[in-house]
Every structure is written in C-alpha cells, then in structure tokens.
Design brief:
- The protein has helices at 3-15, 20-36, 47-62, 80-89, 97-103, 120-131, 147-150, 162-185, and strands spanning 39-44, 72-75, 109-114, 135-140, 153-156.
- The chain is α/β, with parallel strands linked by helices.
- The protein has one domain: Rossmann fold, CATH 3.40.50.10490.
- It has a five-stranded parallel beta sheet, with helices on both faces.
- Helix 3 (47-62) packs parallel to helix 8.
- It is globular.
- The N and C termini lie far apart (76 Å).
C-alpha cells in the first residue's frame, strides 16, 4: 500500500475507535455552559494552539443563532503580548495558568489540547482550573498521557501519529460545534426584543476638546 493510501486508511481506523460517549458528554457540558453564560477557555501548543484558536472562533461565531445565547469563548493562545511576557518572565510552563488565574471562575469550562497529553503548560493550566472548581476537558492522543487522568473528561484519540491526532482533534471541534448549533436551535428563542442582536447600541460619549 502506498503512503497516501496508508495514511488515510490509518486515519479511518482511528475514527472508528473514538470514544463516542465522551464526545457526547463534551457536547452536553458545552451546551450547558452556553445556557448558563459560563466562560470557555481553550489552550494548546503548536498545532494544538491552532486548533484551540479555531475552536474558539467556531464557538464564538459558528454557533450563533438568532434569539439564542452566545458562547463566551476565549483561546488563551491568541494574546501574544501576554503569552510571550509570561514565557519570558515567568516560564513557558506558566503561559496558560497565569492567564487563567486572572479570569477563570467556578463553573467555567477549561479545554486543554495536547497530542501527547504531557504538555507541562497545559497540565499546569488544568491543575489551576481544578483548584478554581472549573470543569476540565482534555483532547489527547497517543496513550493519553497525564492529561487523560487529570481532567474531568477526556476525548482520547487512540493514535501514535501526531499528525493524525491533530487531524482528528480539528475534526472533533467541527463536529462538536455543529452539534452545538443544532442543540441551540432546539432551545426556545428569547423574545425578539431581548435577543443580543436586537439590543440598542449605547450612544458614543461626546468628546469635548480642550
């Protein structure tokens, strides 16, 4: 079998072994977070950082429906001044935990993405989130690493190929956001006058010179 066909066949085999109940549980947790107005924080390194940013974008925009609550989602990978300041002044392992310390509250959701499951900065963020009584979710590959056992719920992609783990993590965030959009459509709509998009903008303050 040539390399192209082999890659795809391995990917298909891994898809068949995904933890379906864990995926459904993540969808439920995020749907409840949306209804309650809880904050969702997402983080990861490298390719997983790209997935974290993509996930936050899709939650924040791709799930919007008229008259339904919107997600409050932030990727902790996106503020490079803050990220690099902590990396330089405190240590790379603290780049996510230090951001969370300013923002996370009990009942919020923290999603850590790590192909190996052993990224130190992801694990430190999860540890802090747990002390703050946030709900913790992991996306991992390989054997799940430490992340698998240190989160409340883990979606473990059973593959030893990092590229394929990252492929499937991105696919899973698309799957999850698609299901969340459908779940929101089944919720009763707010009265039109109370929907966020219907609220009037506050007038700009008058600027008085000198």
């Amino acid at each position: 079998m040539d390399d192209v066909r082999l890659y795809v066949e391995e990917l298909k085999a891994t898809l068949d072994r995904l933890p379906w109940e864990a995926i459904r549980s993540v969808i439920h947790i995020l749907h409840e977070a949306r209804l309650k107005g809880s904050q969702v924080f997402i983080l990861g390194n490298g390719g997983s950082a790209a997935t974290a940013s993509h996930f936050a974008c899709d939650l924040g925009k791709g799930t919007v429906l008229p008259g339904r609550p919107r997600f409050r989602a932030i990727a902790l990978t996106d503020n490079m001044p803050t990220f690099s300041a902590y990396a330089n002044d405190v240590g790379y392992e603290r780049v996510f935990a230090e951001q969370l310390a300013n923002l996370v509250r009990a009942g919020d959701v923290v999603i850590g993405i790590s192909g190996s499951g052993n990224s130190a900065n992801v694990l430190e963020a999860i540890a802090l989130a747990r002390t703050m009584q946030a709900v913790t979710i992991g996306f991992a590959g390989f054997d799940g690493g430490r992340l698998k056992n240190e989160v409340d719920l883990c979606i473990h992609v059973p593959s030893n190929c990092m590229e394929q783990v990252e492929d499937i993590h991105l696919m899973l965030e698309h799957l999850i956001c698609t299901c969340l959009r459908k779940a929101a459509a089944e919720e009763p709509a707010w009265p039109a006058e109370l929907a966020p998009e219907a609220l009037p903008l506050r007038p700009a303050r008058e600027v008085v010179n000198g």
